[in-house]
Amino acid sequence: MSETRRLSAREAVRRADELWSRASSQALRPDLARIAGWIDTESRVLDLGCGDGTLLAHLRDKKSVDGAGVEFDDARVISAVRRGVRVVQQNLEEGLALFDDQQFDSVVLSQTLQAMHHTEHILREMARVARYGIVSFPNFGYWPHGFSILRGRMPVTGEMPYQWYDTPNIHLCTLKDFEALASKLGLRITHLATFNGGKEVKFLAGWRSTLAVYRFESPMAAKP
Question: Which regions span the lipid bilayer (predicted)?
């Protein structure tokens, strides 16, 4: 009977893991799902500001990636570890000196770029450690933002829900702003997806989207 109980317990754990995997896939945000689609199977992935490890766990389970994350928040690190995700606890502002040149195939920075103090530095570091970089950020060019400014107020929207005095967002930009910076840094943009309320925007994206997701190739990728 004890053996039967052990088997039942193992089966319960297995089923729980399967249910978690399905729930994780179903709950993946549309922007994260698009990011996952841009990442190759069995590739090496670094997720900067990985949060609770949702994306890396999904990539591990669905694409067999060799993934690692960087996260500073204690609670999020614990959540990621519980999901079986490898995490380095570090402040991204300190750079990525722990990682070698072109150590990864892809590096992800999701909805964090606008909160970085040293924007150029983190983008250069992403290009150094991986062949492909993927970044997402709120689109300041979304038309209601301009309307709010015309009314004399800073915009508050779904992707930018903070008041001016408590926002973590310090470097806001439009799609064209980011593309100009990418060009300056020698980053070749390969893919772009834009979203509004979880739905993809393909027409007048610079005006109608609230969130932009870019994939770029590192200039180091072309070096022998």
Answer: none
